[in-house]
Protein 1
Amino acid sequence: MSDHEYTPKSKAGKWFNDRLPLLTLANHLTDYPTPKNLNYWWTFGGILTFCLITQIVTGLVLAMHYIAHADMAFESVEHIMRDVNYGWLIRYIHANGASMFFLAVYIHIFRSLFYGSYKSPREIIWIIGIIIYLLMMAAAFMGYVLPWGQMSFWGATVITNLFSAIPFVGEGVVTWLWGGYSVDNPTLTRFFTLHYLIPFLILGLVVLHIWALHVPGNNNPVGIDVKKPSKDTVPFHPYIVIKDGFALLMFMIVFAFFVFYAPNILGHADNYIEANPLVTPAHIVPEWYLLPFYAILRSVPDKLLGVVAMLSAILILAVLPWLDTSKIRSAVFRPLYKQFYWILVADVLILGYVGAMPAEGLYLLIARVATAYYFLHFLVILPVLGLKERTIPLPLSITEPVLGGSPNMAMAKKKESKIE
Amino acid sequence: MSDKKTERRDFLFTATYAVGAVGAAAVVWPLVDQMNPDASVKALASTEVDVSSLKPGNTITVLWRGKPVFIRRRTQEEIDVARSVKMEDLIHPEKDEDRAKNPEWLVMLGVCTHLGCVPLNDKGDYDGWFCPCHGSHYDTSGRIRKGPAPWNMEVPKYEFVNANTIKIG
């Protein structure tokens, strides 16, 4: 928070601001002191905001043409694709936008993991982020059901059946979720309602996420506290706005590639077959962004424990700030953590790959090893590493390595030892 | 403030909270219960199926309450295999005699008890059913033998209305 008192220049502005200090807020957002060493991994917050707005705008438009009824949903989506002016474009942006949203959120999350952005004093930002991520998954899952194709129907059946694993009340909960004895029209209409609602919940949480961020300010690649405002920081506008804008343009090129050249590559062909409750597709796979968790679910031979493992894999992230015992934020100064970080990245990618493969033979074995390692990373490696690891000394300020003429930390280290 | 006065206040607060909580619960319940199956869904409780054209070794699938129901006319060989299985070999022990009162006819929900997919006929290691989603194998009595599903496929309430017609539900 900028400490200086802001007074609008114009009389009208002052009159308005005294009654509702929106201009003070706008001033805070433009002047917001930002660490000057932020790299491009820090641009994904802005990119994610863009993704959310894109999904809300295209979603509103689609809702004007879509019909949430089991007999008409599939045809209404085809109607959007063939008859509605630019309907194909809007639907492809919305469908691929979901994938782009997850691509950006995974980069954003792994950025936090690398630079320790979840650590004190940013735990609340992180936890709000995890809740947003959970809501994103719920919204994406329900959105995938709406076209009422075969994957929609059977994906909905499999995922809602996860709740039947709850002891004693499971069956009742599933019937309640369905509004019947199987996935059917009542399920579709409520999923549509919730799919419409969740993005606005996310929007509210994004406001809290940014609010919580603006209390301590941004973490940065060096991971040490900056004095703000000081030589360590630059104002958000124009410096970060321009950098975020450039990164967004690059991101939009990737986005446009999918929308215009490969709009169905991330989807599944079976979803162009209308839902049929009598035939299950030979191979049910969720969308790519849920595959690692799907692999964890399938790697456990027991139904209830499989569901528990899958949910734990997500919820364990919420307690990460307390599992990681190291006080050093950035992996740049944690040589061992850095290696385990990349092993975790590989582990999650492997889980994603085996999640798309049939659950048998070697794939199943790999899924089990990767699942075990995933939990090992968070429950054993991180707590122990924080206590045992010999870290590289931190620079005194983020300006020091920059003025040293090299972003490389060996320089910072050398300077550090000179000072000692 | 005397002790006596504080206790009186406490009682009033507690009573108010309690009434408030009951009131809130009474308001929330209709909002929750509206999601349960409605009267029109419940009304579709039974269905009648003509099975006269079904030959031994064949299965038909009919829709009941939005779910597939398998009706299989079993061969003598399948019946013998199903009835000779030892109870201790089963994950969810149930006698074939209890699952198919009339041994020739097996009627059960075609829903895998793992996550609700529809298993495929005449497939799997036990020549019964195989679920393609997560690899559960069922025997000729629809009992789970291998894979992640916890229970046998459910036998719904059904009866023979006459020699050719089965009423499910």
Protein 2
Amino acid sequence: MTTLHFANARLIDPEALTDAPGSLSVSGGHIAAISGTAPKGARVIDCGGKCLAPGIVDWGVKVGEPGERHRESFRSAGLAAAAGGVTTLIARPDTLPAIDTPELLEFVTRRAAEAAPVRIRHMAALTKGREGREMTEIGFLRDVGAVAFTDCDHVVTDTRVLARALIYARGLGALVVGHPQDADLSHGASATSGKFASLRGLPAAPALAERIGLDRDLGMVELTGARYHADQITTARALPALARAKANGLDVTAGVSIHHLTLNEFDVGDYRTFFKLSPPLRSEEDRKAVVAAVADGLIDVISSMHTPQDEESKRLPFEEAAAGAVALETLLPAAMRLFHAGALSLPQLFRAMALNPARRLGLAQGRLATGAPADLVLFDPDAPFLLDRAKLRSKSKNTPFDGQRMEGRVLATFVAGKQVFGEVC
Amino acid sequence: MTFRARHLLGIEQLTPEDIRAVLDLSDRYVELSRRTIKHSDALAGMTQINMFFEASTRTQSSFELAGKRLGADVMNMSVAHSSVKKGETLIDTALTLNAMHPDLLVVRHPASGAVNLLAEKVNCAVLNAGDGRHEHPTQALLDALTIRRAKGRIQRLTVAICGDIAHSRVARSNLILLGKMENRIRLIGPPTLMPTGVAEFGCEVHDDMAAGLEGADVVMMLRLQKERMDGGFIPSEREYYHRYGLDAEKLANAKPDAIVMHPGPMNRGVEIDGELADDINRSVIQDQVEMGVAVRMACMDLLAQNLRAERGRAATGGLYA
């Protein structure tokens, strides 16, 4: 294994929350030293003052394997991830069929390892077929590598089933990821209730459906003592409930998608289906509140919620179109909008995109520290470009940022000290 | 002539001048339609396709008659029963039709925004004949014409819109149009049938019918959209009729010369008393149907003029633009 030395870098350390010039050496796939001079025989990479940060740990990526490989394969998702500075991709189990047996999990684990240049870890379904009736073999699935358990956007409505699954998961120390939405209130909705949705005549769910769903989930966590992560908190009125649960010592964390931090409901405009997400985009007040919650650490994780959809499923009337957007490659440039707007610092962003998700999932990634895996991203936060969706590496091109001016480009990505993207070195 | 639009997708895109232009031309088509020889050649040689993805008798026949009186070749397609059932998407259906070179496409669709989507994919003029809960522009225009002819003006009136506002595209379009023409709007209905965010619409909201009708010049009733509801918005039709059905007693709260409107088809005994609906001194419901044909003639005439001008510019390479 070669030794690398990154000289003249701007080190973004999400643990110490520092952003300072420095250098870093890599040996044997791990970070060998922070600062200091190049070790003997090391290949020196002059970073030219650009940012070096721990690679992004993207929690909640939909890959179309098995079942929808025309939308995204492990290979295309892996290439997109590498180009986006994502070094660990946490895949969702909402596939066809759902990943709910150890056999299936072993299969996708093997496929992912063969096909993708970045690390891929998997979540498994919490209930069989994500149907909310019977828990999966949580023990076996954990043994073959499931990092968390979730039914994704299928909310388990039967609280008795959920209680048993949570208690069983607690016994194994397994993490359960919930989708805080009241399933009945949000049934069939494609927008957030309010003036905009009413004028557009779109079926809508109240923003409070999220708080109601979260309150229920937090009650279940209190009942069972389970380890719980809310996949997406996107509304201002859900935040006090989350803060209370954390203050009361419940083992709870929460995430948010990059789209809910950078877009609002008005972006839908004239029924633009690339802006149809699940949950739907929120008001500007909600967006600002959620950005502030990431800044003060109440919301722990920012993820891409990468959801590839083919052209046909988006070229439909808004309420019939599929929800979701691709974002593996646009996560970092979009996050730079928050940085340039002065809302979040680079260390704060990487705390939410790398350190916190890795910690919560029990992974060693996400840190700029001696001994940590050398999963790194070198990027220029100021490089401007015009986003052309046709150039995305994902098989699906459904990005809401098409044609928009972005700032912030990944220059190179390293996994275990090996370069997987970029030209500089 | 101010009306410059390529399509008629909603009232939202129209200016007050556009609206006045449509109403003025409509007045002339009302006169034409009352003659024995009801024919003009405004659309002669043009092809109009009525594409209805949702069942409709009144609107479809109104558009058909309007097109025929203007000399267009009119074709009706009830898409609800044909290729859509075989899995064809909206866009494919649109492209198929587009290949037949229609000049005017009249579209109704159960999904909000579907007509906007379709308009992006075809190169003819598209008229929205109702999309989901979004807009129904020709209905709002015909209502405006009816009001203007009955009241002599279409501004500074107090208009009460009553009933199922949440599910009604007619209410959306009327709300926008009446707002643009500077009228005072009141929305009356049970809170479950009010759209969310209604407080920000800039109109008064009432759940008591008597208070809402107080001093109104125009009372617009809406149909209870049973087919658009997914259940449980009102406890029963008889309770709804008791609280929100328009009868002579409730109407007494409005101005003595207030007119009563309904876009049809009516549910007699649910939202409106049958006798009142037929009272020729108060009800203008039959007038609305007549105005409907004239307004649709005017809209199609104006769009056809713009389409011809656009094609002319394209053919001359912008030489005479």
